[in-house]
Every structure is written in C-alpha cells, then in structure tokens.
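Lecture notes, unit on protein representations.

Consider one protein chain, 202 amino acids long.
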Amino acid sequence: MNQNFFDMEVQGLLEQLDETDKKPMEMYMRMIGNPNKVKEFCQIFFRSVEENGSAFTICMKIIEKTRRKEFFPVLMEAVQKAVNPIQVQSIFKSCNALPDDMAIVKSFMKPFVEAMQNNMDTEVCYHGVCLMYRIVSKFPEIEEDLKSLQIYVNHERIQNISRRFDILDKWQTANHRGKNTPGYFMNENDFLEFALKFIRIK
C-alpha cells in the first residue's frame, strides 16, 4: 500500500474536492470523530465494517466522493470482513477508481469473487458485475483470471436482475436517466452478454 497516502492529512484529501462537495465531506468527517490522518480514517472505516452501524455509510460516502485509487486495496480488504450483502454491494459501488498498477488489482480478484459469491443477492450480483466491467475495461488481461474464478448464480437471481432493468425502462426517457440507471449496461441483454462470461447459472 502507498504509505505516503495513508500518512496524508485528511484535510489534504478534502482540499482536492470542489467546494460543493467539501462542506458535506467535512461534516461527515466530524460525524466520525475528525480523524487527522488518512490511516486514522481507514481504522475508523474497518471498525465500522465490524460494527455495521451508521459510521459505515458515512465512510462509504467519503471514499466514493474522493475517488482516490489508493482506497481500492482498503475496500478490497474491507469486503472480506463484510457482515452482510448490503455492505458488500456498497463496497463494490464505491470502487469507482482503480489503481494504475494491474498487479494490485489482480491480487484482489479471488477475495473479490469470494465476497460476491458468499454474499450473493440481486444487488451484490449486479454491482459485482459492474465492478468486473470496470476492471476488465481498464485491464483486459484480467478477464481470463476472472473467468477461472467461477461464480454461480441461480435462475431466480437472474430473473430479479431482469426485473431491475424492466422497472428502469418503464420510467426513464431518452432525456432523463435517473441516478440508479445502469451506467455500464443500457439493457438486460448487454448485462447478460457480459456477465455470462464469468458467472454460471445453476
């Protein structure tokens, strides 16, 4: 891990945000005890995973908004300690910035897939596949590694994901796409075409 990043003051992390994001992030930091260093924030985050309380949600908002690649290993360590599917899907969604070093990403593929399989529900499956898409788009070489780590999903789960797309299709228009609209797959067929490279239906 990048020790310089973890030794950074939290204020330095927040200063990189625009003004509209900075104030709410400062408020969130106060809510979790105003950590001074990034490593102190990470300690609070890991503790929040174990405690499964409101601090977890706050930490996830901070990580997601800062979009720092250095948080990817932190998130992948945390997902191995997650206590429920809601935590897992939240962590997958917050992996919005991947490290430039492929070796780092590759080293976490097995725990990533295990967390997905062991906490499988509709949202975990969907956001796990979206994370796979982000990973493979940046590092095509990792596709074969992911294919070798087979994930099994039942028919009911696939049907639930299909309903997810159906609901979105009913209210969205060409000029209005809500925040929950799939950002990588425009429809169910696109999702399944990609997902079935890595998952097996049982």
